[in-house]
Design brief:
It contains 11 helices and 13 strands. By secondary structure, the chain is an alpha/beta fold. It folds into 2 domains: about 180 residues, Glycogen Phosphorylase B (Rossmann fold, 3-Layer(aba) Sandwich); about 150 residues, Glycogen Phosphorylase B (Rossmann fold, 3-Layer(aba) Sandwich), CATH 3.40.50.2000. Strand 1, helix 1 and strand 2 form a beta-alpha-beta unit. Helix 1 packs across helix 11 and helix 4 crosses helix 9. The chain is globular, with a radius of gyration of 20 Å.
């Protein structure tokens, strides 16, 4: 099958440092190539891929040192090129939210759009009603809740290649926080949990310009605690050692997380996750197998002390069973075949992300 993957231009594919969507696209494109498909990846020129690269910008936007740049102009130019070459592909798979909708209305049935972000945002309902002919993929069942009427074709959880994430059976004694310093990610909760549990916390996270004030006013003062080590933003070269060496990953979010890629990155290393019952967390974590789901800081502190009883090999096996890149690619190929066949596209019921569903704590 001839497949176009259209990635955002904000980060390289995969990202040099922090980045979720582009990392998933990288692993999906490679897995599709491994399965024998002809894949063309529209992305920035600093991308590394086994697919055919169609470079759309010399460098990904975020790390481009140019003082002034236009993300809108970059993405419009890319969509123009995809449109020009659309006849070359059986399926066009978009990862740029809904930006492409007005330009591909006459071929919506040959497109698939994976939505990677939160959907509880003003103006989105009207747009997805207006362009309801575009087949959509959600990355969790919870992600769909704000737009239950949308043209959902399937729910496909993210997957990752196994090789970059080495299994670590003998972790260190610290807790890990990986991601962004932002109010919804709640690094302050992670610090308080570590403090109350009496264990070191290592924070590997980027600080966006939009969150600089939050970091300076709310988080930086908390970093004086001797138990807390702020590492900053890290890339793939350091991620496996950081996650694999942790007793547990803290995921104390306070927002409707659509998936939470860092959870399965930790699981790939054998590191269990202590996650808030929020957003997609109850779908991704198998309670008592790949982590523990909590509802407040007191439960989180208890979970820190209990997490050592979980078998790290079972954590890794949960990743291999549910979140491999090959499993993700196979699920997408099934949807591509439905699109390329040209038949009636009836939405599928969202599949359970794990079987059985996580068990409630006694």
């Amino acid at each position: 099958m001839k497949i176009a993957q259209i990635a955002p231009l904000y980060e390289a594919v995969p990202p040099r440092l922090y980045g979720g969507t582009e990392r998933v696209v990288a692993h999906l494109a490679n897995a599709l190539v491994d399965q024998g498909h002809e894949v063309t990846l529209f992305a920035s020129a600093d991308t590394q891929t086994r697919a055919r690269l169609a470079p759309m910008r010399a460098q990904a936007l975020r790390l481009d040192p140019a003082p002034l740049k236009s993300d809108l102009a970059s993405h419009l130019c890319m969509l123009h090129e995809v449109r020009r070459r659309a006849h070359e592909f059986d399926v066009l798979h978009f990862h740029v939210d809904l930006l492409h909708f007005p330009f591909f209305e006459d071929m919506a049935g040959r497109t698939l759009t994976t939505l990677h972000g939160r959907l509880d945002i003003a103006d989105l309902p009207g747009a997805y009603m207006r362009w309801n002919q575009f087949p959509l993929v959600s990355i969790s069942r919870h992600q769909r809740k704000p737009l239950p009427f949308a043209n959902w074709l399937a729910t496909i959880p993210h997957g990752l290649e196994e090789t970059p994430y080495a299994f670590e059976p003998n972790p260190g004694g610290y807790l890990a926080f990986l991601g962004r310093i932002s109010p919804e990610k709640r690094p302050d909760r992670a610090i308080e949990i570590a403090r109350r549990a009496g264990l070191p916390l290592k924070i590997a996270a980027k600080v966006d310009a939009a969150d600089a004030s939050y970091f300076a006013q709310k988080i930086r003062p908390l970093l004086d605690d001797p138990l807390v080590e702020f590492i900053g933003e890290i890339g793939d070269a350091d991620k496996a050692a950081f996650l694999g060496g942790a007793r547990a990953l803290l995921f104390p979010i306070d927002w409707p997380e659509p998936f939470g890629l860092v959870m399965i990155e930790a699981m790939a290393c054998g590191t269990p996750v202590i996650g808030w019952r929020c957003g997609s967390v109850p779908e991704v974590i198998e309670h008592g197998v790949s982590g523990l789901i909590v509802e407040d800081e007191a439960q989180a502190v208890e979970a820190v002390h209990a997490i050592g009883a979980l078998d790290r090999r079972r954590v890794r096996q949960a990743f291999e069973r549910r979140y491999s890149a090959q499993a993700m690619a196979s699920a997408y190929v099934e949807q591509y075949a439905r699109l390329a066949g040209g038949g009636a596209l009836l939405p599928q019921e969202p599949q359970e992300l794990h079987e059985p569903l996580y068990r409630e704590a006694a």
